[in-house]
Every structure is written in structure tokens, then in C-alpha cells.
Amino acid sequence: SYYELPGMQEDSSPVTPQRLVAQLQATLDADSIIALDAGNNRTWMAHLYKARQANTFYSPGGTAGMGWAVPAAVGLKLVYPNQPVVCVTGDGGYMMTVNAISTAVQYDLPIICVVFNDNVLGMVHDHQPEAHKIASEFFPTNNATVAEGMGAFGIQVSHSKDLPDALRAAQASGRPAVVDVLVDHVPSPDDWRAGAWRPGQT
Q: How far apart are CA 148 and CA 96, in angstroms?
């Protein structure tokens, strides 16, 4: 079906993006509010995650600026204090507004941030010609440790078999939480991306 792709039930290290989405679908309550960031993480979620209630799936529109999801999750938790709020972001977008985690700690807003961590600006990297990849990869960062330094709960996941326990631990912490998932960098399922860059084109 439209919501099923190979790899969604596959156990691996690093974790496949589609497996991470499938685990979020299985773990999160139906009334969980999702705030997406820009990039490949958003495309995976938009293709494969099935929202089960109205007004629970938020995504940056327009130019889809990176870094939107973390502060958006903080705002959504203020508006909907009685519903779980989950930020889904890539590592690049997360680091652009990571300071919002300290705001969540300061105001005791128990949001959960799930980070697709592949050490690359995925959508930027995928659009660059193979011979001209530049400024789209960066040094590995443990985003869970960064979160712990701000007073949040943090846990890093490197194998898909550990995803269920990690997500449940974040939920049970009762604090702002970051689940940093080491994911395999694979192109997102967007059909329009195929052949977008060819030799001789600008």
C-alpha cells in the first residue's frame, strides 16, 4: 500500500528511516501531536506516517525553513498541554534551534524530540551533483548528550531493536526528551527527485 515500503519492519544498525517512522506509528498515542522539520525527515514522515486524528500533524509550509520543529513543538505544548507533543527533525535542523530544548526545560514542557541523525543535510546533499558534494556533511554529534547538558532526558539509539524501549523511556521521563536515532542516509521516497540533477544542467 501507499503507507508501506521495504525496510519498515527491518532490524538494522544504523536504523532505516522507514523503520523509525513505523516505530513512531506503533508507539505514539493517536492524540499525539507531531511537529515536523524541513528536509528528508519530513518527507519520510509525510509519506509513511498515518495521522489518526485531526489537528495532530504540523509541518512548515512556504519555504519550509529548517529548524522549525523544535520551537514549534514548544509552542504546541503550550497550546495543547494535555496531549503528547513530538518533534520529528533531522540533525541539521535540530542543531539550528537546539536552544529551544533549554526553553522546554525552563518551563517544564515535556516534549519529545526524535532526531534523524545521519550527519548530513540530507535533502541538500541529495540534490547536489555527485561530483560536487559540498558543505552538506558534518562531524558526528551525540544530540542526546547535548540535551542532557541542558537538563533534558537524552538517549541515543544505534539499532532498531532498541527503538521501542528508547521511545517509552522518553515518554516515561516526564521531562523534555531527545531520542537521537542514528539513521542510514538514503534518498527520501520523493519521485520528483529522480533525475533532478544531470551532467550539464544548472
A: 17
* Among the ranges given (63-72, 127-136, 143-152), the one the predictor scored with the smallest mean pLDDT: 127-136
- pLDDT, one tens digit per residue, over 66-124 is 889 999 999 999 999 999 999 999 988 898 899 999 999 999 999 999 999 987 755 55
Q: How many CB atoms lie within 10 A of CB 30?
A: 10
The answer to whether 118 and 183 have CB atoms below 8 angstroms apart is: yes
N-terminal to C-terminal alpha carbon distance within the chain: 36
According to CATH, the topology of domain 17-190 is: Rossmann fold (3.40.50)
Q: What is the full DSSP assignment across 23-83?
A: HHHHHS-TT-EEEE-SSHHHHHHHHH----STT-EE---TT--TT-HHHHHHHHHHH-TTS
Quick one: cell of 196? Answer: 533532478
C-alpha–C-alpha distance, residues 201 and 196, integer Å: 9
